[in-house]
Amino acid sequence: MHLLSASCVCALLITALLRQVSGLDTVIGLYGETLEIPCNNGAMKAEDVLITKWKYDKGEGLPGDLLVKQKNQNVSISATLEYKGRVSMAANSSLLLSEAKLSDQRTFTCMVVAGADIEEYPVNVVIYKPPAGLEISDKASELEIGKLNKLGTCVAPDANPAANITWLKNNIPLVADGKGISIEASMLPDPVTGLSTTTSILKYSAKKEDTDAEFTCSTQHTVGSELVSSPVTFTITYTTENIVLQVITQDPLVEGDNVTLKCVADGNPAPTSFNFQLKEELVKVENTDTYIITNVSRDTTGEYKCSLVDDPTMEASKDITVNYLDINLSPSGNIVKSAGEALDLSFQIDASGDAKVSWTKDNVKLEKEPKFTKLTYADSGRYECEVTMGVLSRKAAFELAVEGVPVIKQLHKQRGKDGTHEVLICEAEGSPKPDVSWSINGTSPEESPFVNGMITHKITVMPTANLTVSCTVSNGFGADTKTINVSYINVEVKMDKQDQSDGSDQTKLVVGVVVGLLVATVVIALAYLVYMKKSKQGSWKTGEKEDGSSEEEKKLEEKVEENSQKAEV
Ligand SMILES: *[C@@H]1O[C@H](CO)[C@@H](O)[C@H](O)[C@H]1NC(C)=O
Ligand SMILES: *[C@@H]1O[C@H](CO)[C@@H](O)[C@H](O)[C@H]1NC(C)=O
Ligand SMILES: *[C@@H]1O[C@H](CO)[C@@H](O)[C@H](O)[C@H]1NC(C)=O
Ligand SMILES: *[C@@H]1O[C@H](CO)[C@@H](O)[C@H](O)[C@H]1NC(C)=O
Ligand SMILES: *[C@@H]1O[C@H](CO)[C@@H](O)[C@H](O)[C@H]1NC(C)=O
To answer: What are the boundaries of each domain within the chain?
Structure first.
């Protein structure tokens, strides 16, 4: 009711005076309020008026008296029946009628006697009343998409004239279209007050986007401001239209990982239970849309499905591929083989896709998988293969040691640049690393690193006689010996040559050597007997000339060797 009184206050101010086509003045009053019915539009001059009288039309032409005012007298009220106690007159002759009712809609006449004139001013009264409120009732609990459902009933009670109800969605009027929108309005007058109650029923076929839409109804009455009901919103329900199976995994999926299957379906309310088809097995889940497969294996690979429990035709599927990469390399670890043997490698790859293989030997890339039909010492080393497939990779390795009796591959000599010495070079192959020994004591022994079963050993000699020198290589498996003939170097000749060609340092050296030789001749003569003894023990071979014709040369040889050592120091 507060709504009504609020609108009446403002409506009172705008009470309008209308001139009808009939020529009759019409005054509009608000139901329940005091109505002022002006006399001759208020164009009255009180001092000229002798008598003012208000009467009304009782119907059938019968007049009913209301009140009379004579000049300089008080108003005399003669109203009876329904007007008793409700009428009075304003100073400007207007009739004031309180608590206006619909039954007051009739003709009131003001009769004025001024001087000798008697004038009558009939006024037609109309009573309006805006609706007492506006409310949506019978609200649907939810709207199902695509079905014409009763959304609600809008009621505008107790109005005159009867209210026209407009339905709105998000403040936009809805118009009946015979399909998705249907509006049925009805009107019922109150038998006592005569006021009309308008009822409008909206039937509405919802769409998905009507979620959160605000529905209202409104009326714009002849008097008063627009009335708008409180908005109502609805849950829009619809059955599942789309279903998707999501597979949530690490990428790539490998054995031991977990896989989460998630069945995503629309619909409102959303479905809460699903069937997961896990290859052969059917699993029903409730109050969740996920299923977790733990510790997957290569057997997990396959097609997976999910569907709605209430509608198995709503189904989605997805393939799961579990990646795996197994390699098997045999032999492995440390392998010891004899040179010349064969080594059979067995190398297998079991993978879910194409794998790339690469081999290295001692961290150096190999062109292809190694094959050992006849092992050589050079085959010794650490072999590694790496197999990759995407981000998966596997490694395997073995360490091959080829062992065997050492063999001298080459024994040769190189004349030194200055021509005074020979460098003897013994190249051997074998594993484990062979020991190298010579039949004579050379100088500047030099041993190469032991690589691929190869070792090179060098010594420098300054032969004072034609010699046969042997190189012996040996390890736990055996030994090999080779000999080489080294010719006597006539030091003096070489020295002379050097004298001509070399610098002063070299000359000094040569002079020193020559002096040394002269001294040595004397010393050697004294040591002759001792020396002979030693040579007969055969601790080293004395050279090409075994005929003993040149004992002095032998002594000389030793001396030269000593001297060359001195020179080096
Ligand atoms: C007559 O007087 C009343 C106050 O007494 C006033 O409200 C009203 O507007 C007047 N009517 C006309 C037509 O002048
Ligand atoms: C995962 O499965 C494999 C066999 O597929 C099994 O050997 C392993 O123990 C399982 N691991 C766990 C953590 O269950
Ligand atoms: C060394 O051998 C060569 C031949 O190879 C020979 O001409 C020379 O006389 C020999 N020298 C000595 C000192 O025996
Ligand atoms: C080599 O020299 C060592 C001493 O350094 C000596 O004992 C050995 O007898 C020498 N061998 C030969 C063959 O001269
Ligand atoms: C070394 O000399 C001896 C004779 O002094 C000869 O029998 C042998 O064949 C020679 N060896 C080489 C490799 O020349």
So the answer is: 6-128, 135-237, 243-320, 325-401, 407-491, 505-568
Name the CATH code of domain 135-237 (choices 3.10.20.310, 2.60.40.10, 3.40.50.720, 3.40.50.2000).
2.60.40.10
Q: Which of 39, 54, 94, 110 to mutate to test ligand 1, by most ligand atoms within 8 A of the CB atom?
A: 94
Distance from residue 21's CA to the centre of ligand 5 (Å): 158
Give distance in angstroms: CA of 527 to centre of ligand 4.
Answer: 17
Q: What is the pLDDT of residue 538?
A: 42
Rounded distance, CA 249 to CA 317, Å?
16
Counts of helices then strands in the chain (DSSP H, E): 5, 40
What is the structure's pLDDT at 365?
96
Q: From the CB of 258, is ligand 2 less than 6 Å away?
A: no
CA of 549 to the centre of ligand 3 (A): 12
Q: Which amino acid is at 263?
A: C
> How far is it, in rounded angstroms, from Cα 119 to Cα 142?
66
| Nearest ligand 4 atom to alpha carbon 540 | 13
Residues 6+ apart with CB under 8 A from 107: 24, 56, 57, 122, 123, 124, 125
Q: Give the closest ligand to the alpha carbon of residue 293.
A: 2
What lines the ligand 1 site, CB under 6 Å? 36, 38, 42, 90-92, 94
Which residues of the chain fall short of a pLDDT of 70?
A: 1-23, 44, 46, 491-569
**pLDDT at position 558:** 55
CATH T-level topology, domain 243-320: Immunoglobulin-like (2.60.40)
Summarised one tens digit per residue, pLDDT across range 557-567 is 555 455 444 44
Q: Are 243 and 261 in contact (CB under 8 A)?
A: no
Residue 534, pLDDT score: 52
Cβ of 488 less than 6 Å from ligand 3: yes
Question: Does residue 142 contact residue 234 with C-beta atoms inside 8 Å?
Answer: yes
CB atoms within 10 A of CB 333: 8
Which residue, by CA, sits nearest to atom 10 of ligand 4? Answer: 441
pTM for the structure as a whole: 0.52
